Amino acid sequence: MKVLMIVPTLSYSHISFNAKVAETLVSKGHEVVTLLPDVDDRVPSPNGNYEIIRRDVGLASGELSKTLWTNPDPYEDSSPLNPRIFLKLLRVSSLFVKACKALANDRLLLESLRERQFDVGMLEQYDSCGFGIFRAIGVNNIVWLSATGAYAEQPQTIGVNYPLSYVPNLFAPLGDEMGFLDSLQNVLVSTVTGAIYSYTRAQQSQIFWKTGVLAFGEDLLATARKSDAVVVNTLPFLDFAMPTSQQIAYIGGLTVQKQERSLNTVDQEFWRQIADSSTKGFVLVTFGSIARTVDMPLDMQRKFFTACSRFPEITFIVKYEAANSTLPIPLNVQLTPWIPQAELMGGLSIMQTFLQFYW
Fold it and tell me: What is the pTM of this model?
């Protein structure tokens, strides 16, 4: 089976998820090609036993990352109901439309892909351009991926109800027990994010009108509704309860390292000394590669370090992307520019207590 995966270089985590899907398919004997529209040139290409086509789509270096991860930054109010976030999402939308236009008009690329006669096309939930590309090259079997939990537009598009009364939107800071005001917030967040998604898809649909792939007035939504399956990077018993379908497959844990990775002798001794300095174990704190700890507002950093100091029997190992901090650091806090998470989880038998926080 020949599979084409369209994977915009949005972030390392999305690339990593799609790369793992590709590797799994290759291990089963399938031929996989990944098309990487280069929306962010700072995101590296994956390594694997499959073909990678990285294509320039006309965005300036760093343009997407500067638009997406700043003004406001990750430590500010990130709700889509925040007018600044709403405007930011519209700016990001315009960049994906621009990238889609470049792909849709890349006749040499589309012709070469059409000649390869792919059996299946795969794309992620945040960008509908792939549906138009698949139409252009004659791919009729489509699998819709999500590197996160299920995005409301996916089950709704294939006819599965997404009840907002008890299922929180992916962008809403809510649980499954909601009062009236929480439910109202959930509806508003879903309305705003759905409107932005629909607006982006409509703009991309117009691109394919002009290239002749879609009939005038036709929406890419019609192609999305014909998706054969939705594959979600979560597990039902760890996620919020919601209606499902035999068309939805859950593959949470696919990206987890199966082989144990160990530290070298020098590093192991360093981390052993840190662990031994704690009487009740240690906590790893990392907010990911986007929400850098060093960019956290100073007042927030001060409160964070103060909270850590209230638990002197626990060592807090904090990923901090600078040589040192301008604030006083408690004795039980260890700053490090990098945390070997997989190695620590698999290689330190001395560990008593292990917790981890993510952004």
Answer: 0.85
